[in-house]
Amino acid sequence: MGIIIWLVVGGIVGWLASLIMRTDGQQGIILNVVVGIVGAVIAGLVLGKGNINGGLTIETFLWSLLGAVILLAVVNLIRRGSVR
Q: What are the two backbone dihedrals, phi and then psi, of residue 41, each rounded to the nearest 5 degrees?
């Protein structure tokens, strides 16, 4: 059941991050899920908690969203040379 929650929440986080960064037209649902999950891992590493199975709260959701936005900003910076 945990993997399904990861996929759903990862998709939502990735989609919201792509809307914030205006890259939604370039991404599909699979890339949204990947960006959301990788963003959550990045946020966990930056915060130093290291526990990705800590549960879903508003705080962890927002940190995951921030991690996904940072990930998309870095990808845009590398791909285009500027952040949108």
A: -65, -45
CA-nearest of 54, 71, 84 to 14 is: 71
CA–CA dist 66, 75 (Å, integer) = 14
Each residue of 17-60: pLDDT tens digit? Answer: 888 988 877 777 888 888 888 887 878 777 755 555 567 778 88
Number of folded domains that form the chain: 1
Domain that holds residue 12: 2-80
Closest CA to 56 of 67, 40, 42: 40
Instruction: Please enumerate in sequence order all residues whose Cβ is within 8 A of that of 77, keeping only pairs 6 or more positions apart, or say none.
Output: 83
What's the CA gap between 72 and 75, in Å, rounded? 5
